[in-house]
Write a structure and sequence with these properties.
Elements (H helix, E strand, L loop, with lengths): L1 E5 L3 H10 L5 E7 L4 H7 L5 E7 L3 H13 L9 E4 L5 E2 L2 H7 L18 E9 L3 H10 L6 E8 L4 H5 L6 E10 L3 H11 L7 E7 L6 H10 L1
Antiparallel strand pairs: 1-3, 1-4, 2-3, 2-7, 5-9, 6-8, 6-9, 7-8
C-alpha cells in the first residue's frame, strides 16, 4: 500500500494505519510535480509530500480504505491518495510474519502475473549497508540498483521475527531483474548480505518496461 499526502498530515495517516495493525511503514519525502494551472483547478498548493509504504493484506486494505474515506476524507481534493500494488513474493516467512504481524493473513502459494518478464525487487535495510546488498545481488546476476533514503516506523517488534533490532534510518534499494532470476537474487541478498543490514526483501511484478534494452538483448544468450 502506497500513500502520498501532505507532510503535515502524514502523522494522522500513520496513526490510522497503526489502529488497523499496520505497524511497519517506510516513510520518505517527495515534492509534487503538478503544474500551477492544475494545482489551481484542483484547489491544491504545491507542498512537500510524504510517501508512506506498507504491506497490507486484502482484508486489511478493505478496512483501511473505508476509514481513509470516512475519517481522513481522502476523496476531498488535496488530501492525498492511497493505492495498492500486488506483491509477487516476500523473502522468507519470518519477514512475512513481521510485515503482517497484526493483520489477518491467509496463506497461499506464490503466484505470478502471466507474461511478466521483469520483477521489481525492493530491499528495506538499515542505513549504510547498500554495498553489501548490491554485492550479493550482483553475484546472483543482478544489474544496478537505485537507493532511496527513508525512515522506518513501527520497527520496535522486529527482534522476535528477525532476531535483531532495526534502526529507524533506512535505505530502500530498488532492483529490476528478469523474472527467472528473481528468486535467486532474493535468496542471495537474504543469505549473503551483511546480517547487520536487517534486510527485508520483496518483489513487485513489472508489467511493461522502457530503457532495459541491454537486458533484453542479453536474454537469448542467457537461456
Amino acid at each position: 500500500m502506497s500513500t502520498i499526502t501532505d507532510r503535515r498530515t502524514a502523522d494522522a495517516f500513520l496513526q490510522l494505519y497503526e489502529a488497523h495493525g499496520v505497524n511497519v511503514t517506510l516513510r520518505t519525502v517527495g515534492t509534487g510535480t503538478a503544474v500551477q494551472e492544475t494545482l489551481s483547478t484542483l484547489g491544491l498548493e504545491k507542498t512537500e509530500k510524504a510517501v508512506l509504504l506498507a504491506v497490507v493484506t486484502a482484508q486489511t486494505w478493505q478496512e483501511v480504505q473505508r476509514d481513509l474515506r470516512r475519517k481522513m476524507r481522502i476523496d476531498v481534493p488535496g488530501t492525498g491518495i492511497a493505492f495498492t500494488v500486488p506483491l509477487s513474493s516476500i523473502g522468507g516467512k519470518r519477514a512475512l510474519g513481521f510485515l503482517t504481524e497484526h493483520q489477518t493473513l491467509t496463506w497461499k502459494e506464490e503466484s505470478t502475473l502471466k507474461d511478466t518478464r521483469y520483477e521489481l525487487l525492493l530491499v528495506i535495510a538499515n542505513q549504510g549497508y547498500t554495498g553489501s546488498i548490491m554485492d550479493a545481488a550482483r553475484a546472483a546476476g543482478a544489474g544496478g540498483g537505485t537507493v532511496i533514503h527513508a525512515k522506518g516506523t513501527g520497527m520496535e517488534g522486529a527482534a522476535p521475527f528477525l532476531g535483531m533490532e532495526l534502526v529507524n534510518e533506512k535505505e530502500l534499494v530498488l532492483i529490476v531483474s528478469r523474472t527467472a532470476q528473481k528468486n535467486r537474487i532474493m535468496k542471495a541478498i537474504m543469505d549473503g548480505a551483511d546480517r547487520r543490514a536487517g534486510a527485508i526483501v520483496f518483489s513487485l511484478p513489472v508489467t511493461d518496461t522502457a530503457g532495459l534494452r541491454l537486458l533484453e538483448e542479453e536474454e537469448p544468450a542467457a537461456k
